[in-house]
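ERR on first pass: missing label on line 2. Operator R.T. fixed the label and resubmitted. Corrected input:
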Amino acid sequence: MKTILVIEDENAIRSNIVKMLNHSGFQAVPAENGVKGVHLARSLMPDLILCDILMPEMDGYGVLSSLRQSDDTVTIPFIFLSAKADRTDHRQGMNLGADDYLTKPFSVQELLAAINARLEKQTEVAQPYISQIKQAAEALGSFAHFDPLTNLPNRIVLHHRLQAAIQASQETQQTVAVFYLSLSQLNAINDTFGHSTGDLLIQEVAERLRLHTDDSHTIARLGGLDFAIVVTNATTKNELAQQAQQFLAAIAEPYFISGNRLTVQAQIGIAYFPKHGDSVNQLLTRAAQAKNQPEATAGYYFYNLAMEAADVTRRMLKADLERGLQQMQFQLHYQPQVSLLAGRIIGVEAFVRWQHPQKGLLYPKDFVALAEETGFIQQLGVWVLQTACTQVQMWRSLSPLPLPIAVNISSYQFKKKALFESVRQVLAETKLNPRLLILELAIDELMADLDYACETLSLLQTLGVGIHIDNFGKTAFSLEALRRLPIHGIKIAQSLIMGVPHDSELTDITKAIIRIAQTFKLRVMACGVETQEQLTFLQEHGCYAMQGFLHMKPVPAPEFKQLLQVDKERHQV
Ligand code: C2E
Ligand code: MG
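pass 2 clean. output:
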């Protein structure tokens, strides 16, 4: 229904016009003077204005010129009503931009004819603009609802569709599941081949997901490396697992982009209605949480309620971390590294511990990943370096041989340029001989970006520190990496030593690693040695040193000091 604003100071005329218009199918809004009229015009944005000329406070000309100054109201059709038939008045009104002029008294027909003529004219003029505006709105709508790279629905659409699916399933009792899917290794592809290759790969992933879905699914790109899929056609957990496996297999197939053969992996977290939540946000958050499970080795993982409790604990711990450092709740434990030839202590590794006021002594598995998530590992890492270097300086007199100290460096720290400066500064502050500091790094971290690793390690080497690869053999490595990386030693993973000498495969791998280390002239040390059998095997095969519970568990500094004293006395005799 069209709205018409009637600005007229004479009550009888105004109410007559209003009645007439309402009767003729318009919605008429009265204003008894010019000031009110302008105010109402701006707030109501009527389709047409009828306005008297002679009024107190603000006359009709004042109203018209005021409305013609504003972009919003300039196009509203404006018809003057006046008792004067004077030509000058007429011209003055038209000059100001009035659309028509009705002289009182006028009949209903005359009024309606003038109004309809103006409204039709307005529609004609506005039509091209309306279609342009519509097109722009559609384009904007598409931008607001679809991911421009993959043309998949975005988070907003996902939200609506998931909401609708949940509502529908309340009637049909159907399962509604959300798969939260994240790609890994794509950052390395972006770094190596450029972002345009990364973008093409994401498009191809979207295409493969499309091929493996039908109308019962909604796939959305949530941004970055994350996708979500709403699944409504599965009735059992088994069927959901099968679908997850199909998506993972499709994504894992190689991609051939710009002449390169590329591979990516994905992880999927699954949460479903009503078991894991009854709102869109709950299901999405829980599916994302499930995806981050370290046990999600199959590539997909279902949310379970135990995870919620674990999550609450994690959040509380995160909040405690910083306070823990301020209140000196962290400490280092030390484990000796023993030569397999002479049986002497030839080094020490420092392990961080957290004496939590409520939870007792916590181990790295309880908080290092959290500290990495929050970035707190930077501060903690510097504290570990400082404490370890200071401590080994204090033990100098107790060890006739130089006692190098090994410090674990997390992948988060390794990725930050600040690592070099922290090491340099700690060495300067503690005045420790750089040769007595060994940095332990994980091989998968180094392999992830070999160029960066070579560059960073070479830089660290300029400080004179030693570099060892930790947990060697636990994950894949290449001989090329070993050849290129400027390192001094490798530590055979505990998971291999565990199988020695009874598991023939693990034993063969361990032997091969010792041989490789010898070929590359690297020091080789075995981790997690717990039995005499393991020790004998390692001695027989030329391993240089070992660390493990067989000799000693990691202990606090005072106990390690006693061990050094005993070792010194034993070897003095
Ligand atoms: P890692 O460097 O490979 O450390 C070896 C882990 O095995 C240590 O556990 C150690 O206590 C344990 N271990 C040593 N000998 C034996 C043995 O004979 N048998 C068995 N079963 N275990 C043995 P911990 O202290 O819980 O450390 C676990 C991991 O946490 C470390 O693996 C290291 O990657 C990380 N970590 C420890 N301290 C730090 C630190 O100060 N900074 C960083 N960034 N990571 C640390
Ligand atoms: Mg280590």
